[in-house]
C-alpha cells in the first residue's frame, strides 16, 4: 500500500499525499505550480486551450497523449510524466519545431489558444502513422478551437512541423522511460483527508474488494464526463476510485470470434480493434466521438457505464450484438448490452458491481453493419441522433436477422423492435423499406430539446433507414433512382 501519488511535471518529480481527489490538473498547474501557460477556456474539455501531454510507459514503449487538463484529475496521473507548454523549448532555449513552424506560418494571433494548439501538434508528431494530408491534420486539431486565424496558417504550420527532424524529446526518450519505470511498484494507492478519499487499485481483484467495501465509491476511468460533474456541476464526490492504469482492465483481445475490450481501454486505443471488425462507415463514427484529447482519455466502457441516452458508443455496440461483462466481488456475469440500460440514469448494476469489459462479436460474411451520427457540427459535437444497423442478408435477398439501435431517440440507447420485425423474414426491397420506415415512426416517442425536435428525430431516423437501403440494398439502376427520389423528397440531402 502506498499513501501518495507520484508523477513528473517536466523533469521534476512530485509526490502528493494530500491532494483532493477531484483537483483538476489545470487548477493544480496554474494555482499550485504557477505554470500559467496552460490556459483555462471552456473548463469542460471542448476548446483545447488547456491541452497538455501525458507520457506513459506501456510495456517498454513510451506513449504520448494530448489530454484536456481541465477535466483530468491530478489523482489520475500516478506513474506518468506531464509536459506543458513551458517544457516545449529545447534545453538550449531554441524553439521546438512546432513552435518555429507556428512563427514561420503566422499561426498565432491573440495567442490565447496557441499553447493548446502547440501541445496537440507536438503530440501529433509522436503519433504512429499519422498521415500529413489535410483530413488527418484536421482530425488531430479538431479538439482545439481558434477564433482568430481561420486555421489555415495552423494547418500549414503542422505540415511544416511534420517535415522537421527529431526534437529534444526524442533525445530524452530513454531517460523518460527510465524514470517512469522507476515509479512502477505495483502498489495500491490510498489517500484520505478532509477533501475526500482516493483509491488507485493495483489489480482488478483490489478494485472488486474496494467496491464491495464502499459501493457508493465513484469509479473514474477517463473523467471526460465525471470531470464535468466537478467543474460545471460542482458535485461532491467523497470517494474516487481511478482505474485507468489497472492492467486487468486494459486488455484488448482480438480473435476470430470478435474483440474484447477491458473497462480501462480508451476510445483511441480501441479504434484499430473496432475498425478491424466493423466496416469503415462505423469506424468513421468512432472517429467522431469527441476529439483526440477526449478519445485519449474517455473509455469505451465508461461511455456505457454512464448510461447517457446520447452516448455515441452504445447504439453501435448494441447493433453489433455486444455483451457486457460485469463483476461484483468474485462473481461475474455477462449480459446483452441493451439489457444493461433500464431507464434514464438507471442501469442493471447491483451495489458494488462494476463494468469489467465488453465483447463485440465479429460479423458473419453475410452481415452488414452500418452506423451514422447526425449532429449540428461534424466534429466534436454531441449527437442529435445516432442510428446503428446490422442486417444479415441471405443470398436470395431475405433479411434473416435485423438489429437496429438508436441513441437520442429515448431515455436510453434502445433497439427499434417494431422496425426489426418489419425487416426480418422479408426481401430487402423498397416495399420492406417503406414498412420499416413506418414502423420506425411507431418505435420511439423522442423528446424535443435544444439539439432537435421530436419531428426532426423521427424523420431523420426513418431517413437513415433509406440511407441504409441505398448503401446495402439492391443495386439495380431502378432501385437507386427510386431511392434518390425518396431521399430528396424526405429531406435526406440535408443530413448527408
From TrEMBL:
The keyword Oxidoreductase is annotated on this UniProt entry: yes
Top EC category: oxidoreductase
Superkingdom per UniProt: Bacteria
PROSITE patterns attached to this UniProt entry: 2FE2S_FER_1, 2FE2S_FER_2, FAD_PCMH
EC numbers for this chain: 1.17.1.4
Pfam family membership, one: CO_deh_flav_C
Alphabetically ordered keywords of this record: FAD, Flavoprotein, Iron, Metal-binding, Oxidoreductase
MF GO annotations: xanthine dehydrogenase activity
Residue ranges occupied by any FAD-binding PCMH-type domain in the UniProt entry: 191-365
Domain 2Fe-2S ferredoxin-type: 3-88
SUPFAM superfamilies: 2Fe-2S ferredoxin-like (SSF54292), CO dehydrogenase flavoprotein C-terminal domain-like (SSF55447), CO dehydrogenase ISP C-domain like (SSF47741), FAD-binding/transporter-associated domain-like (SSF56176)
Protein's UniProt name: Xanthine dehydrogenase small subunit
Origin species: Komagataeibacter oboediens
